[in-house]
Amino acid sequence: MLADNSVLVIGAGIFGLTAALELRQRGYRVTVADPGPVPHPLAASNDVSRMVRLDYGADGLYSSLGAEAIEGWHRWNARWGRDLYHEDGFLLMTSVPMASGSFEQDSYSLLTERGFPIEKLLAGDLASRYPHWNADHYIDGYFNPRAGWAAAAEITAALAHDAIDSGVSIVTGFAATRLVQNGDRVTGAAASDGRELLAEWVLVAAGVWTTVLLPDLADRMWPVGQPIFYFKPSNPENYRAPSFPPWGADIPRTGWYGFPANCEGVVKMANHGPGRRVHPDADRLTLPEQEAHCRAFLAESLPSLAALPLYGSKMCLYCDTWDGDFWIGRDPARQGLVVSTGGSGHAFKFGPVLGGLAADALEGIENPYTKRFAWRSLGELKSEEIRYTGE
């Protein structure tokens, strides 16, 4: 560790706050800079819910990281004295028989081999246990009890409080527009109003705004908009676990996934698909054709919600990397610069372990995930490729 021990973290989302907490615990003087407020209304970390699961097809690396994260979610619940992670399980349904090589079968096989108590859906199970779903359409699948959902905005706010309590300085009203450099060393960041914050290390955790500060990464990551829809049924208690847990419905083929009703009775569903590339400051509005697509899915799959009026909708922005893997590593060309971003629509579930990965990258410590998430060039696909990673 260098003598100054100062770190400037750009971004107060799940990547930035967890990195700040971990680095503070390791003895660094940490400042987090963000336009504010925290949680930021346009940030990906600000929403009612995020999926938590370790179902990743045959991808053992993300599945292992997910298992570590779930242990961490339980520790966070205990620390906060309230359940912001809800272990309601994960229902994965498919309209075609599960077969080797498919996301569903490979997830089932890997998790079963690792000793997780996965419950294969038998004939009649969907209709009897999860009656809202069209049991004629979904003919196969399983339920994983070791999964659930996280109250994203509340968690981000709790992490910010934890960071302040630990001695981290959070500076809001700071919209970073460029990095400050001295030769090949990054020494800080400058805001749109000309202010500068300086530190020995700069950790960029700016989500979809990463390429504003690092335009040279724009060929490897970019903002992508994905639609989210909210409904408020008159009987929300019927849309909660155990009969209505977090779910994925043909997700490798359709991208649809969703959540139980929250404490306000709101049911959220979203689509993880190709999305559309947008500017990071774009209006977070869904398109009429996206709502039509949603309603067509509901009519076929979840008819009890199909005719309800929208309670709300928005476009969620992902910072997508070209290969779907996170980007957590040191810049090989600029000293003092670390980047922790590239959530690609599936990072929040790993919140309890993201900070450790970022701190290890800063300190040059190898861990089982270092190579997968390292600074890399186009074409450097890892041998263990993921193919479906969405929330």
What can be said about this structure in brief?
By secondary structure, this protein is α+β, with helices and mostly antiparallel strands. The chain is built from eleven helices and 21 strands.
Record keyword descriptors for this entry.
alpha+beta; 11 helices; 9-stranded mixed beta sheet; D-Amino Acid Oxidase, Chain A, domain 2; 27% helix; 2 domains; FAD/NAD(P)-binding domain; 391 residues; 25% strand; 6-stranded mixed beta sheet
Task: Tell me about this structure.
With 391 residues, the protein is an alpha+beta fold. It has 2 domains: 6-45 and 153-220 and 322-373, FAD/NAD(P)-binding domain; 89-99 and 118-150 and 222-321, D-Amino Acid Oxidase, Chain A, domain 2, CATH 3.30.9.10. It is built from 11 helices and 21 strands. It has helices spanning 14-25, 60-80, 103-113, 125-129, 152-166, 210-213, 251-254, 288-301, 303-306, 351-363, 370-373, and strands at 6-10, 29-34, 50-52, 85-86, 90-94, 119-120, 140-144, 148-150, 169-172, 176-182, 185-191, 196-198, 201-204, 221-231, 247-249, 256-258, 267-271, 276-277, 312-321, 327-330, 337-341. The strands form 4 sheets. Strands 5, 6, 7, 14, 15, 16, 17, 18 and 19 form a 9-stranded mixed β-sheet that branches. Strands 9-2-1-13-21-20 form a 6-stranded mixed β-sheet, covered by helices on one side. α1 runs parallel beside α5 (152-166) and α1 crosses α10.
